[in-house]
């Protein structure tokens, strides 16, 4: 497996959690469980992705701006997560913020899969792609 496949697998988990979370209502046990799962998934994914995908690419002139943009989007998601955590789950604002987060997540995933991956594919060797996937997956397993 290469780094792109490994990351895309986790992107699918995030999409599923977002779809399920934004279909919940009120202060339900489903909402609490899905929110906890999504928040954790986003946190460990961002950390592993920044360490084992963005970091090796940020020093490449062609990739630097894209890597910085991806990291900035992770920060924007962190801010939305804090906003959601500070909002009562029964509040209509909670679902509004959760939907905003999921829209931001979807935008980020699309950017990566349709632009960043293609550019990174030109910069990384096949061995690097495989080695990065192993390091990324190990980091994800360790935190899950």
TrEMBL record:
Top-rank taxon, per record: Bacteria
Domain Hemerythrin-like: 3-120
CDD domains: Hr-like
Stored InterPro entries: Hemerythrin-like (IPR012312)
One of the Pfam families matching this protein, by short name: Hemerythrin
Secretion signal, residue range per the UniProt entry: none
Record-given protein name: Hemerythrin domain-containing protein
